[in-house]
């Protein structure tokens, strides 16, 4: 009896998560859901998942629902995640953009930025190429649906484990200072990035089009329908020929025709140019 | 196959490091202090040294100073300090002495893997 009541509660919470974020919980993750919610339940003096669901029903969509969603999202990230991707960015893609663009403006979007490591890694990469970007207008937008990770990204405080995973010690020395048990990232980098809470299904933050979009390890738990929706949004906000970088093992193939594998950069996708645009390039 | 010399007076740490390194397809030899490590560096060549700071007989810093005094940068292994000394002063001193990377204990597989990538061993 208790068992089936509990599984009812689990399904309601899973439905809340899916409605808010598009994430579909696998059976496996469903059964671990209580563990993820334990700290939150304790903080709100709730004894069981049924109590939690009852309180959620009482309050409608309030802050508790937000906290539940935040607690269930997988926010794992690290600096320079997938080392070779950042190497390719630094040595090939960014120099290519710098050399081929007419206007000196570079717009980057880190979509599903979690605690900010991806955006900060980009900022460090760009700062190290100061000569390349002299006179350029550079903007980095970083968005995530979870308010708690966005706050952490903005604060720029990282644990000792965070600052070691993927980060070269020279970057640690150059960009961080110790702050108690944690490390604070420099103001210079924080000022380069506009962190916003934003849902990829109802995007408000991105405006116009971006030359480079990173949306890595975000869509893993999305249904096919949700993925199509997200790719639509990424396409709307990508400049013609703009680059899209997905996580290792993620692909656009079979999900969208707006992006195609780059011939030049392995594992990277490019926004397909609208027809007229493509012919004018050929003619030129 | 790349190989790594793990220099630490703690058997447990050596075992943990060995386990992680072998899972990354790196072969491992062990030394229990700096003197032992120097001897091993004389007789064999290594791609990378994972180096503790505080050890009896000869500590990590002394080892590094002797290594850099006797071997040119191109012919010596990459050196990753791996220590409980977490202060900025220690990190800077290690880099000044010629260390390539720095890991603060405790470390995990992901950290070690990323540092090995950064120094170009994997
Ligand atoms: C595993 S993290 C990946 C972080 C970073 N991109 C990386 O690869 O290291 C995935 C992030 O996507 C966010 N996310 C999930 N659904 C989202 C949605 N519908 N809109 C925006 N962000 C979302 C999560 O909150 C989480 O922080």
Number of strands of chain A: 10
- The chain-level mean pLDDT of chain A equals 92
Q: Any idea what the radius of gyration of chain B is?
A: 13 Å
User: Which stretches of chain B are low in confidence, meaning pLDDT under 50 for 5 or more residues running?
Assistant: none
Q: Which pair of chains forms the biggest interface, and how many residues does each contribute?
A: A-B, 15 and 18 residues
Q: Summarize the main sheet of chain B.
A: 5 strands, parallel
Q: What is the mean predicted local confidence, pLDDT of chain B? A: 95
Q: What percent of residues of chain A are in strands?
A: 15-25%
The first-to-last residue Cα distance of chain B is: 10 Å
Task: Report, as a whole number of angstroms, the end-to-end distance of chain A.
Answer: 72 Å
Number of domains of chain A: 2
Could you say what the CATH architecture of chain B is?
3-Layer(aba) Sandwich
Shape of chain B: globular
Helix content of chain A: 40-55%
Please report which band the strand proportion of chain B falls in: under 5%, 5-15%, 15-25%, 25-35%, 35-45% or over 45%. 15-25%
Overall helicity of chain B? 40-55%
CATH superfamily of the largest domain in chain A: Vaccinia Virus protein VP39
What kind of assembly state do the chains in view correspond to?
heterodimer
Any idea what the CATH superfamily of chain B is called? Response regulator
Q: Which structural category do the helix and sheet elements of chain A fall into?
A: alpha/beta
Low-confidence stretches of chain A: 278-284
């Amino acid at each position: 009896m208790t068992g089936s009541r509990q599984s009812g509660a689990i399904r309601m919470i899973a439905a809340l998560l899916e409605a808010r974020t598009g994430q579909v919980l696998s059976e496996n993750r469903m059964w671990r859901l209580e563990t993820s919610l334990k700290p939150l339940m304790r903080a709100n003096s709730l004894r069981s998942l049924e109590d939690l669901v009852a309180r959620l029903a009482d309050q409608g969509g309030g802050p508790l629902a937000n906290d539940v969603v935040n607690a269930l999202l997988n926010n794992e990230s690290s600096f320079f995640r997938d080392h070779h991707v950042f190497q390719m960015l630094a040595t090939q893609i960014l120099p290519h953009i710098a050399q081929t663009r007419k206007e000196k403006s570079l717009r980057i979007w880190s979509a599903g930025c979690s605690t900010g490591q991806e955006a900060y890694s980009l900022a460090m990469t760009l700062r190290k190429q100061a000569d390349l970007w002299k006179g350029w207008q550079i903007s980095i937008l970083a968005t995530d649906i979870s308010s708690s990770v966005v706050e952490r990204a903005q604060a720029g405080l990282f644990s000792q484990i965070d600052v070691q995973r993927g980060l070269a010690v020279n970057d640690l020395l150059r960009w961080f200072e110790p702050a108690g048990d944690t490390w604070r990232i420099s103001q210079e980098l924080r000022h380069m990035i506009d962190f916003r809470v934003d849902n990829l299904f109802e995007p408000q933050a991105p405006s116009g089009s971006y030359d480079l979009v990173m949306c890595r390890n975000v869509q893993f738990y999305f249904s096919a329908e949700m993925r199509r929706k997200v790719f639509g949004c990424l396409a709307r906000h990508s400049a013609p020929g703009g680059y899209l970088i997905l996580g290792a093992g993620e692909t656009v193939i079979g999900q969208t025709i707006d992006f195609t594998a780059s011939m030049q950069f392995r594992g990277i996708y490019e926004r397909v140019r609208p027809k007229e645009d493509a012919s004018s390039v050929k003619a030129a | 196959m790349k190989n790594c010399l793990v220099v630490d007076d703690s058997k447990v740490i050596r075992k943990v490091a060995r386990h992680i390194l072998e899972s990354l397809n790196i072969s491992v030899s062990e030394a229990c202090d700096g003197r032992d490590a120097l001897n091993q560096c004389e007789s064999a060549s290594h791609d990378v040294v994972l180096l503790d700071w505080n050890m009896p007989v000869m500590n990590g810093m002394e080892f590094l100073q002797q290594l850099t005094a006797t071997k040119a940068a191109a012919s010596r292994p990459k050196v990753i300090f791996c220590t409980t000394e977490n202060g900025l002063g220690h990190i800077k001193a290690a880099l000044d002495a010629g260390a390539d990377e720095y890991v603060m204990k405790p470390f995990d597989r992901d950290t070690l893997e990323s540092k090995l990538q950064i120094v170009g061993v994997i």
